[in-house]
Amino acid sequence: MFRRRLFFRAIPVLFAALPCVAQTPPASNSSQAARSPDPAQVLKTTDAYVRNLFAWGPDFKVNVGPLSQSPAADFYLVPVRVSVNDQTDTGEVYVSKDGKTLIRGEMFDMSIDPFAANRAKLHIEGNPTKGPADAPVTVVEFADFECPHCRELDEALKGLEGHYRIRLVYKDFPLVALHPWADTAAIGARCAFLESPEAFWKVHDVIFEKQDLISTENVWDKLAEFASQAGLDKEAFKSCMSSPGAKRAVEANREEGAALSINSTPTLFVNGRPVVGGDIAALEHIIEFELAAHSK
């Protein structure tokens, strides 16, 4: 048990935010080639160094690589995957091409918008939305209907909607390994959306409201009941639940979340800026920052 706790503490330390490195002018090809060791040697050195740095002994399985170019010309981006006791975590480090320097944290190219890549991956069309389409701030929420923190955030978001001019977009990210009925609930809510975008929010709200009363045994009956209460045709709803269309839409959102490196819920993006964990104070701060930036 002690080792398991140490493992999960070590990973955040490895990938914690440290001073960022801006893009540096590229070195000449000749000078870079003269000082750069073979990439295979860089990986071998990195593996040995992170094992020693974080006390990952022989029972830890560590995979580093493959190398790719980072935003800084003289550094490689190096993925790190570490496993022990059937538990796995991943992250990235930056290693200089001469094999002498390792940087943990995030590296940014200051010539580009740091959140543009996130916005390019976020697809709003075809998903439930609330608020004006031309709102200066778009909040995209990835949530799980069985997640207690998502339920808490849902209540807080209702207050923000009335206070700020924002557009809220809901996306499914059911954590199926943790929450056995979350995927079914996501499919049911999607079926409500396909039949009536307005009814979606009624079903969405009641799922969170009745979260403690839903189980793997009764989730189908509960969803049919919620759909009927929202004015949807019960038989059409059940037919949709058994069809592949809604399931594909849920899976598309989950794949989109994975492409954005989401691994927990709730995770939100405010004009592309990630907010993990549903901290309402942090969310308000970022919304106000974005509104102020758009008012200039």
SSE inventory with pairings:
Blueprint: H1 2-14, H2 29-35, H3 39-53, E1 61-64, E2 68-69, E3 75-84, E4 87-96, E5 102-104, H4 116-121, E6 129-130, E7 137-143, H5 148-163, E8 166-172, H6 182-195, H7 197-209, H8 219-229, H9 234-242, H10 244-259, E9 267-270, E10 273-276, H11 280-295
Parallel strand pairs: 7-8
Antiparallel strand pairs: 1-3, 2-3, 3-4, 4-5, 6-8, 7-9, 9-10
| Rg, nearest Å | 23 Å
> Overall mean pLDDT score?
88
Helix share bin? 40-55%
Residue share in β-strands: 15-25%
H/E element sequence: HHHEEEEEHEEHEHHHHHEEH
The quaternary structure here is single chain
User: How many H/I helices?
Assistant: 11
For the record, give the distance between the C-alpha atoms at the N and C termini, rounded to a whole number. Answer: 53 Å
| Unreliable sequence segments | 1-31
DSSP strand count: 10
- Structural class per helix/strand content? alpha+beta
Main sheet properties: 5 strands, antiparallel
The global form is: globular
Q: What are the salient characteristics of this protein?
A:
alpha+beta, 10 strands, 11 helices, about 20% strand, about 300 residues, five-stranded antiparallel β-sheet, globular, five-stranded mixed β-sheet
